[in-house]
Amino acid sequence: MRKVTNKGRQTKQGSADSGVSLRLALAQVNGLVGGFKTNAEKVKSACAQARKVGADIVLFPELIVTGYPPEDLLFKKSFIKNCRETLKKIAPYTRGLTAVIGFAEQKGKHLYNSAALMCNGKHIGTYRKTLLPNYGVFDEKRYFTEGDEPVRFFLKGAQIGLTICEDIWGESGPGKTLSKDVDFILNISSSPYHKGKGKARRQMIIKRARSYKCPIAYVNLVGGQDELVFDGQSLVVDAKGKIITQGNSFEEEIIFAEVALSPKNRKPVARGIRSYRAPATLSKANIKKVPQLPAGVYRKKSEEEEVYSALVLGTRDYIHKNGFSKVVIGLSGGIDSSLTAAIAVDALWSHNVIGVLMPSPYSSKGSIDDALALAKNLDIKTFTFPIESAMKSYDSILKDAFKGTMPNLAEENLQARIRGNLLMALSNKFGWMVLTTGNKSEISMGYCTLYGDMAGGFAVIKDVPKVLVYELCHWLNREREIIPKNVLTKEPSAELRPDQKDTDSLPPYELLDPVLLRYIEQDLSIEEIKVAGLSKSEIKRIARLVDLNEYKRRQGPPGVKITPKAFGKDRRLPITRS
Amino acid sequence: MRKVTNKGRQTKQGSADSGVSLRLALAQVNGLVGGFKTNAEKVKSACAQARKVGADIVLFPELIVTGYPPEDLLFKKSFIKNCRETLKKIAPYTRGLTAVIGFAEQKGKHLYNSAALMCNGKHIGTYRKTLLPNYGVFDEKRYFTEGDEPVRFFLKGAQIGLTICEDIWGESGPGKTLSKDVDFILNISSSPYHKGKGKARRQMIIKRARSYKCPIAYVNLVGGQDELVFDGQSLVVDAKGKIITQGNSFEEEIIFAEVALSPKNRKPVARGIRSYRAPATLSKANIKKVPQLPAGVYRKKSEEEEVYSALVLGTRDYIHKNGFSKVVIGLSGGIDSSLTAAIAVDALWSHNVIGVLMPSPYSSKGSIDDALALAKNLDIKTFTFPIESAMKSYDSILKDAFKGTMPNLAEENLQARIRGNLLMALSNKFGWMVLTTGNKSEISMGYCTLYGDMAGGFAVIKDVPKVLVYELCHWLNREREIIPKNVLTKEPSAELRPDQKDTDSLPPYELLDPVLLRYIEQDLSIEEIKVAGLSKSEIKRIARLVDLNEYKRRQGPPGVKITPKAFGKDRRLPITRS
User: Which of B100, B287, B376, B488 is deepest in the core (most CB within 10 A)?
Assistant: First the structure.
């Protein structure tokens, strides 16, 4: 595993003017869905750290008690009961602090996505999320009732407003309403990643702070959960939108900030806002000791590094949280399996990754050499299973049934399925999870074999378009060769028949990817898509293949979402359609 | 295919008192998602039939123009444009009639689930669905904005209110609001089936008619759409809840009714209801000719027949609407593959169903005989592929890697996967869709092999618990033997190792199924589940296996939903969880 070192975080401390200064801890922790005990431990430990540095307030992500997103587990009474009991258990951990903790709150027939306001070991108030996202990967209206009351609390003479994720994404909404009265807005989020999301989120928060005319502290979840990965990148900005501190992407950490507030109303007006007051004892307790704030280290990542980190964390968490430690990957000598193996090594260490070469008579010598070179670069163990004997045995079983037919997809797919079976046999025998290696471009086009190369537990790069696969590999090789040079330069081929090339079936990837982006991620129609070098009929054929192959994707394993629209719950298309 | 004959429908004509009498046609048609042309043709043909019998009003299902549910196709501008243009094309078909036609309506940034009111060839008004279901299989809040205005229209002096599906499911709501003013409520629906849904729906409509104090005409979609099947069972009831006429389940047909209305308000009050008026010319045109109404034939089905019909239609539509005509099924001689094959034959005729026997050294002579007897009873063609040579070839490829290990699941799963590969080879070679044969009980427990017996395009009985599988087979055999007697009486076995029985791994199905019902369909916790004959720890083990095997189900093909909660979009559980 290549360790990423953190250096150079800019932690600007807000200048203390005539107003109040508050010390914050933002716990961007890695939660586990249904992991009440684990999640409570994370809260306990973060509270202890916050106390140690004399923090006034500690923030935890949205629904941290249940993990996010809990999906239909929310329909189980026992799950909600578990959440309620865990919250009670958590309360004393907040001794000496004010804490904001996301949980699922049952009230009569209604379930709310709520934030518990805890002060000095007591749950003193609750805010219920008002804006419930029900688009993209979100189904919050399936579970929750909308809250209808803004909430603020008073601490050290300052008025502080509570919001949850979506509440501040719109220009208007609960954040805006609150900002007329409060001096500071807190937001607890579980906001999933896609390429560029960190930047978009940062810009949004800066814009809001300026329009609210008050500082914002934003905490976000970290970690992989099925097809989602949460990137952290928590943030504190001042009223002018200047960044006071920010959390790293894809790392579990607690970040600290000193925030200067300029209270707007010394005599607060009610205006239909539910108000709570932190006990005076609490404020006094914290004023006594003012230790130095630990200096955080923020390291800016390039776009490639950001995506790569998302894939590594998403993969590691899927493997570990599902109780696996080792993975097995079919190595074809191609670029997709090479990148997948590199990610797996960074997620799990070399000794937990096993590569399998499964040459057929159509495999080139080069492919085998390239796969072995990769395994050497990554320092992973390999098996080599030639598959010709299995191919022959199927041929002989099917001989009569296939009499008089020409070799076609049936024979090609059998090779891929023999390989899938061998990997699954290793999985079943030794408890290794199979990682599949398909990229978004080929999965879009159905250029992959169901139960063959699609067979496995996790599809690491299923949301990475082929052109980006190349970019990530070049980035990986920036210091030394990890992906063998020949893998990067040779023409892509599935090697399922003699002299096969991807371009026999597909347009070149640098033309294909822009079409897929427009058709899949942007929902443009064939008429609206224009890509130089491709005719209208070629674009039509691409769109048709995307549509026709929905049935295949439906049976593929989950993988990390890294684009604005991934296959999975982000894109719900019927299989049956005209 | 065994043809079901219709006989004995009771079409009671509403008695014409001092009020108005209206003649209705309810077109319970089989739509196609995205099939704008096909759907428009269905509207055209139904309008022609309605005109022929002098109907005043013809009703079509919810979103019939787009097909239901269109899911994320609604995000495509071109799809909405197609819908708008189709609606325009449809308008002239309604000449001489008043028609209510479901469509997706874009208005500025908002999309509505709407009903077009067309009179004599013109689109004169629109009602927008107010209550949008966002639970179970429904995601309507993902797409649509809620309408906020009740709509009525005047025809022959009567006031008629429009509602869409969910609008009348609640005690209060838009239906109730309208009923204070109108004399008649129309409801257009696309309401998916599960066992007992027809009865529940009928009871609900009768209850509503009594509480609204006016007749209700309810039209419902027919047909399979991915994992859903729509059952029709359209209904007209009078103000006392007496059934005037009803449509058959799972059959595309137009049903007719004469409904006597007792107008409540001759001088209608506005009360914030948007009102339209059918042109006077229209009423006159219809009064002239009063031909005899065609006598419909309604046939009540037993519960087994109802479920069986759902499976047949769901399967037929999935195959045909996806462009297939033939299917291939692995026949093990067990009850699941026998039932699946029988359903396929009823859906597609014998000559479109191919059975494949794939005996291993662990297959009993009895299993082969039973499979052949079934094929004979169903008059289907079979292939026989002994798989031992393929098993040996995998053993030899894996020999070194598996050295020193004991045979386990790995070797068992290989057998299932060899069979999956052979079926898929036939599929790829000849264009036949593979039907999988797993039932709900074993899919719940993960007692099935991913990429093995789970490999295929459609999982016909995936939502049928094992006990119900037996009940359906007994029902099938009511007149003559279709499922061989030995299949019904022998003990279930996967035959993947010598002398294996299902009960080696699972509790008896008559104990297992009630636990699964409570845990999966009712979301009860382990503490709440009590089933005589099973200890708390056995129940715990069942629940744990259900949870652990979510990853397998996620990669299985779709199949017909016939229970209140099916695996699929009805039940959205995380794979990764504590």
Answer: B100
